[in-house]
Every structure is written in structure tokens, then in C-alpha cells.
TrEMBL record:
PANTHER family: EPIMERASE-RELATED. Residues 1-20 have a biased composition (Pro residues). Residues 1-21 are annotated as: Disordered. It comes from the Eukaryota. Keywords: Isomerase, NAD. Belongs to the NAD(P)-dependent epimerase/dehydratase family. It comes from Brachypodium distachyon. Transmembrane segments: none annotated. Gene3D superfamilies: NAD(P)-binding Rossmann-like Domain (3.40.50.720). This is NAD-dependent epimerase/dehydratase domain-containing protein. Residues 118-239 form the NAD-dependent epimerase/dehydratase domain. InterPro entries: Epimerase_deHydtase (IPR001509), NAD(P)-bd_dom_sf (IPR036291). GO terms for molecular function: isomerase activity. The lineage of its organism: Eukaryota, Viridiplantae, Streptophyta, Embryophyta, Tracheophyta. Pfam families: Epimerase (PF01370).
Length: 319
């Protein structure tokens, strides 16, 4: 609960009409896109997705997806035939430095294609970076944005661009502002296990932050599914957990899990030094709207339960 926000009554049970399996098109089938795709496929959805290499295309096809190689800096929108047929569109390609969102330069063509097609739902995966530095204050979706870095500025421009694009289309549209994403295969546990002990300057800056919003990929999936159950245009949700803890604490916890079982994988102690903090884009991102309006009950409200579940899954695999 964010200090300063009045306590709200528990949400009414949300009507959750089952979403009939549709046709999802994922632009950028990366970590989140793949997680979502695998689950929709298992529920009978038709899923199409893009990636940037032939090797990845083969991997996605093995899952049962209809995959295409699409490099937004080079490929042509007209080659993306799934756009004409998809009922759901998940945009997961980040803005490109110096270019911005690669799809929005074809605004008119894209709008026409979507208007002529079957699209009912669109979701743009954004980032909490759009809030910039808020001096550690709690921020909700109504907080003024202050994107400072180049990538945050491009991200905010992309949000605006997608919202403009859907303005004249009759469909549900959502912007999900994600915290740092982790999950099986991408977490502090995996970083330690891979022995990545030297940090880039960007990582060092992140390491020194007092508050970092993060979210387990399973909870992003929950948010996406919940958004499909409501009709809503231009809605923005923060998708973060309840615990904006320092990254150093997350690594210390991951290290403690690993040390107990695999002492050889212990991390360089200098890595978890939390005394020398630089304040950078500090804020605590509130997830109240996600819980109240979408009725999402987080599976992993803290990095502790999230990392513990990833660690437990290692043990299951290793047995
Ligand atoms: N990682 C985080 O902590 C974090 C936090 C907040 C928001 N986000 C954003 O949330 C979204 C989903 O995150 P994620 O971790 O799932 O991202 P990801 O794993 O990096 O996936 C990004 C996808 O975009 C594709 N892509 C990249 N550049 C492209 C280009 N020029 N043309 C076409 N496709 C391109 C990639 O293709 P390939 O599959 O071929 O590589 C990949 O499928 C992304 O927009 C990400 O920036 C991430």
C-alpha cells in the first residue's frame, strides 16, 4: 500500500467472461512474448509472432507458433500478414535508439490495416522508466511522467504514439508499464549461476538504487490475461510487485539461496555492497490500480517468493 493513498475497499469479484481462444500476434517474441505465447497455445489459441533471426523462428515454430523474421528497421509492414487477421496484438519490441518505435512511422498504413482487420485488443509493453526520478516517492499511473534518459523519452513517445493510433479504432487498448522483468531463466539466480561477476556501468548504477520496481513474468501474464476481460480504451497500468527493494538486497537473497546448496557458485562479496549508493531515477511504483481494477492477485508479490520459486524449480529439474 502506497503511503498517502487512502485505503480502498476490496474489489468486487470481477466478472471474468472466458475469452474465447483468439489469434494473438506478438510483435517481438522475446522473454515475455514467448512466455505469453506458450500459455496461450496451451489454451487453444492461434499464436503468431515475430523475431529477428531464422534460428529463433525455428524455435518458435517448434512451440506451435506461426513465426516470421521481422526486423523493424528493415522489413516491410505489408509482409506481416498476421496483422490482417489477428484478434489480439501484443507489442513487445522496444523503441530503437535514434528511430523510436519502429511501427509508428507507418502510422497511417498500420491504422488502416488494423481498422480493416479483426483486432479487438491491443497491449503495448512499456516501462516504469517513463516516471524518471521522483525522489523515492510513491508514484501511481496519474503521476506526471518525467522521462529523463533517451530510452525513457523514446518509450514515452511510443506510449503516446500507440494511444494516438488506436484512438479511432474500436478496440480495447492497454499500456502496461513494467518493472524490471525476471522469471525462470532470467533472474539474479541465473546471473550468479552464470558467473557474471563484472558489472557494466549501467548495472552498477542500477545496483546502487534504493528502490527498483520489478515483476515476475508470470504476473505480467496474469495482467495481460486480466486486461482481456475488460473493455477499455487508453488504460495504463503499472505492473510491478509490492516490494521495490534495492537490487543489492535481491542479489544478497539469491546468493543466500545458492550458497546453501551450491557453495562453489558464491558471488563476489563486492557485488552486494549496498553502502555506496548513487541516487538515480528513484521512485516506488504503486500497483494499486492493477489490483483494484484488473483484480490481479500477484503470484509473486516480492522478489523473495519469486526467486524462491525459481530456485525450487531448479531443484525439481536437477532431481
Ligand atoms: N527487461 C526488463 O526488465 C524490462 C523492463 C520494462 C520494460 N521492458 C520492455 O518490455 C518489453 C518486453 O520485455 P522482454 O524482456 O520480453 O524483451 P526482450 O526479451 O528483449 O524481447 C524483445 C523482442 O523485440 C525484438 N526486437 C528487438 N529489436 C527489434 C527490431 N529492431 N525489430 C524487430 N524486433 C526487434 C526481439 O527480437 P529477437 O527475439 O529476435 O531478439 C525480441 O523478440 C520490451 O519492450 C522491453 O524493452 C523490459
Amino acid at each position: 500500500m502506497a503511503p498517502g493513498l487512502a485505503p480502498k475497499p476490496p474489489p468486487p469479484p470481477m466478472a471474468r467472461p472466458p475469452t474465447n481462444p483468439g489469434h494473438m500476434l506478438v510483435l517481438g517474441t522475446g522473454f515475455v512474448g514467448r512466455y505469453v505465447s506458450e500459455r496461450l497455445l496451451s489454451q487453444g489459441w492461434r499464436v503468431s509472432g515475430t523475431c529477428t533471426s531464422a534460428a529463433k523462428k525455428m524455435e518458435l515454430e517448434k512451440l506451435g507458433m506461426s513465426a516470421s523474421v521481422f526486423d523493424a528497421t528493415r522489413s516491410n509492414l505489408a509482409d506481416l500478414h498476421a496483422l490482417e487477421d489477428a484478434t489480439h496484438l501484443l507489442i513487445s519490441i522496444p523503441p530503437i535508439p535514434g528511430v523510436g518505435d519502429p511501427f509508428l512511422s507507418s502510422h497511417a498504413d498500420l491504422q488502416r490495416t488494423l481498422a480493416d482487420g479483426n483486432l479487438q485488443w491491443l497491449c503495448y509493453l512499456s516501462s516504469t522508466s517513463v516516471y524518471g526520478d521522483c525522489g523515492g516517492a510513491w508514484v501511481d499511473e496519474d503521476h506526471v511522467v518525467n522521462p529523463e534518459s533517451e530510452s525513457a523519452k523514446l518509450r514515452y513517445a511510443a506510449e503516446e504514439g500507440w494511444l494516438d493510433l488506436v484512438d479511432e479504432l474500436d478496440l480495447s487498448a492497454f499500456i502496461l508499464r513494467l518493472g524490471g522483468i525476471y522469471g525462470p531463466g532470467r533472474s539474479a539466480l541465473d546471473t550468479i549461476a552464470k558467473g557474471n561477476k563484472s558489472l557494466s556501468s549501467r548495472q552498477k548504477l542500477r545496483e546502487s538504487k534504493q528502490f527498483t520496481a520489478r515483476i515476475h513474468v508470470a504476473d505480467i501474464y496474469q495482467a495481460i490475461r486480466a486486461s482481456m476481460s475488460i473493455k477499455s480504451a487508453r488504460k495504463i497500468y503499472n505492473v510491478v510487485d509490492d516490494d521495490p527493494a534495492p537490487r543489492a538486497d535481491v542479489f544478497a537473497f539469491a546468493q543466500s539461496l545458492i550458497e546453501r546448496r551450491y557453495p562453489d557458485l558464491a558471488m563476489d562479496p563486492a557485488r552486494s555492497n549496498i553502502h555506496d549508493r548513487i541516487i538515480a531515477a528513484e521512485k516506488r511504483v504503486s500497483n494499486e490500480r492493477l489490483k483494484q481494477e484488473l483484480g490481479v492477485r500477484l503470484l509473486y508479490p516480492s522478489y523473495r517468493s519469486g526467486l524462491q520459486s525459481i530456485f525450487d524449480s531448479w531443484l525439481t529439474v536437477k532431481k
